[in-house]
Amino acid sequence: MTTPAERQRALLQTGAFLKQLAADPRLPEPTRIEARRLLRHFPRRSDLWLLGSVADLPPPDAEDEADWLRGYTHGAHDGA
C-alpha cells in the first residue's frame, strides 16, 4: 500500500523529472515543449508543502530529500 508520504515523494520526483526533460537539449523540441506545458499546471514544492501540512506529513524539503531526489540534476519543481 502506498503511503501519503510516498505519494508526496512521487509527485516531487515527477515534477523534477518533467523539469529535467524540459531542459534537456538532446530531446526533440516537441517533447521539451510538452514537459514545460505540463509543469505549468503541476504542483510545486510549496503546493505540496501546504497540502502536506494539512495532512500532517513531513515537509517536502525534509533532509532525507537528498537521497531520493539526488538523481534529478535540476531539483524539485519550484515554479518557473
In short:
By secondary structure, the chain is mainly alpha-helical. It contains 4 helices and no strands. It has a domain at 7-56.
Q: What is the element string, with H for helices and E for strands?
A: HHHH
Q: What is the number of strand segments? A: 0
Shape: elongated
Number of helices: 4
Terminal residue distance: 33 Å
Helicity range: 55-70%
Largest sheet: none
Mean pLDDT across every amino acid position: 81
Structure description:
The chain has 4 helices and no strands. It has 80 residues and is mostly helical. The protein has a domain of 50 residues. The longest helix is centred in the first third of the chain and has 20 residues. It starts with a helix and ends in an 11-residue tail after the last helix. The mean pLDDT is 81.
Secondary structure topology:
Blueprint: H1 4-23, H2 29-40, H3 45-54, H4 65-69
Helix pairs in contact: 1-2
Keywords:
80 residues; 0% strand
